[in-house]
Model the fold of this input.
Amino acid sequence: MLLWDRLGASMGMEVLMERFRVLVRKLSYGACFIGMLFALPLMLLTVADVAGRVFFDKPIPGSFELSEYMLSVLILMGAAYTQHVKGHVGVDFLTKRFSSKLQDLCGVITTLACLFIVSILVWQGYVDAMAETAVSDQLRIPQRPFKMLVALGGGLLFMEFAVDLWEKLERLMGRRP
Amino acid sequence: MSPILAGLLGSLLLVVLLLLGMPIAFMMMFVGFLGIWHLTSLEAALPIVAKTLYGVAAHYPYTIIPLFILMGGFASAAGITRELYETFDKWFRRLPGGLGVATIAACAGFAAVSGSSVAAAAAMGNVALPEMRRFGYAPRLATGVVAAGGTLSFLIPPSLGFVVYGMLTEQSIGKLLISGIFPGIILAGAYGLVVVFWAKLKPEAAPASPQKVGFREKILALRGIWETFLVFLLVMGGIYLGFINPTEAGAMGAFALLVIVLLKRKLTWGAAVASLLEAARISIMVLFLVAGATVFSYFLALSTIPAAVSGWIAGLEISRYVILAIIILIYFFLGCFLDAVSMMVLTLPVIFPVILALNFHPIWFGVVAILMMEAGLITPPVGLNVYTLAGVAKDVPMAEIFRGAVPFLMAIVLTAVILTAFPKIALYLPGLMGR
Done:
């Protein structure tokens, strides 16, 4: 009875993790999709600013700070998706010569280190954003929501690494091929 | 524990984590954080990662990165690679290894509107490889040409390599981009000569193309390069003449290519999303690396290692060119295992102060460093361009592509030697800027 309970709990956990995994992947892609769209207004705003300055001697006010804000959305929102597609580069020329168990063990160690530093990023990103009261120079746009993206994007990144860790642990314990 | 010992232990931990496969950006943040904590206090270390990341992600000059990558995406979608190839094919067909020379010329042309070498290798692999194979070119030569040609995007502006180098060393990105023009032309010429010599020595590797092309046809074929020429003139001309800064040039270039692709009605929803996603992914990868390098640099600066190393090397009684040769060899070796941006962020915090202490020109060294990083794109076991091409030319073993790229590696080394003997090649155009 105890064995069945454990197995059932384990299966329930697996289903839960699978749902969590799907949710994280959807959120990561959605956030990156929103972020990447900001590349277009970033381009158009800069072109309009140059055209205004060269042809009419009237640059667009605040284009500089708007560009900075748009870049921050693009970069911070897509960090988790970039991890999902293994876009944050590392080297594997040594580990790929290891056995699959040893590879997973290395993966668990490095993912734990990533989780540690990303958790500090999320925590301190939130603290820094909450303490922020500054506004931009020309358009008086508050910095806080953009600084909060460090915590938000970092939170998604943390969940991506957590899913990675779970997968590696499952492989290490022989539950996943 | 002395700061220098802490710095050395931190560097050792960095190497261990690197070999264990940890993503480099987070690895540098992690080690940098621990090091700062040890050398100062937890209160001082805690906010650094988050503050640095936001500082990098919201820094105006870095908006250039997604814009340069977008240029490459829109240029690919517009079919510029095929047009360039068809034009240069008509001009160079009669040369020994003419299709290979045309491929190199088309790669150089694509490099003039794209900042990504992998994109160039992939795009040209789909266009030029089938043609060369159709005319009976040896797979080794055909794939070697495309893999090497793709590296030109890293040197010929707009180049992502110069942007990252400029960010990390606080040099003018505009001057760095302009400094790549002449060395890029020389390298493209050297690649072309490699193909010609290869075809002369082994005619069976590059059968001559029998069809003659009339002069009128050649002139008419130039229609295929006007878009590239126009965009390059707009972007680099604007920077050189000082009308626009590099970021604005990136936006103008991406916008011009967007207009071209829209006018040609070639922009599909899939191509647009792929271009934007690529721009986001590469920008995020690069800027996280820069943020990681910044945190790690704080730690290294606290450890006083960069100052100690540069002071020690400057005090050695050997020629500065010997030290330069050692640095170049280190880059050549690292290029076998690391991608170019990672190599820069890992090495420049220590190597750049050494270069300054040895009185080398920072812009000139930027060009030489970028050249050596280009070599890393085609050296085994981790040559990114070769990997990309292996995905396109599925019937050619990867080892064969690496062998095909070897003669082009020699061309890179030769170009580095020429640049060291005649630094003016890189410094002449930047020297004229801002007068």
User: Anything to note?
Assistant: Chain B has a mean pLDDT of 90. Chain B touches chain A through 60 residues (CB under 8 Å). The first helix of chain B runs from residue 3 to 19.
